[in-house]
Amino acid sequence: MTRFSLLQRIAxxxxxxxxxxxxxxxxxxxxAEPQLIDTISCNSPDPWxxxxxxxxxxxxxxxxLPKDGARPPVxxxxxxxxxxxxxxxxxxxxxxxxTNTSTGAVGTVILPSRGHSVNWEGSLxxxxxxxxxxxxxxxxxxxxxxxxxxxxxxxxGSATV
Length: 161
Prior knowledge:
Radius of gyration: 21 Å
Distance between the termini: 21 Å
Mean pLDDT: 83
Helix content: under 10%
Shape: elongated
């Protein structure tokens, strides 16, 4: 439940109480908001030019309903760059390898994407605990076929879920 809808319910109860109507409203506990816990730099060479792509990867926890439908608890990663290839497109294959150092669980998630800028996002179903992860990006130009002139980069981070 968002704060706005809770305020609307309080206002409805106040109006109803002022008109003599009695309503029983029980407020549900507020859902945890996704929390941005870190932004890591995951820059990469650009397959279209000599200027490197500046890619920021936002790391979130407390995500109850991830966009990709994963079951919580998850660590959610969202990467983007402001520069676009305008007329041309990028093809991106991102592989994230993670380890839950609290439980020993490990996993790999592959996140493909395509677009005028380098954007990708996805959930890591890590379970609760301390998580370390490594992001491997393969970014290529889309020139009649995908992954022309592929460029490789990697970065790492850690978080608690």
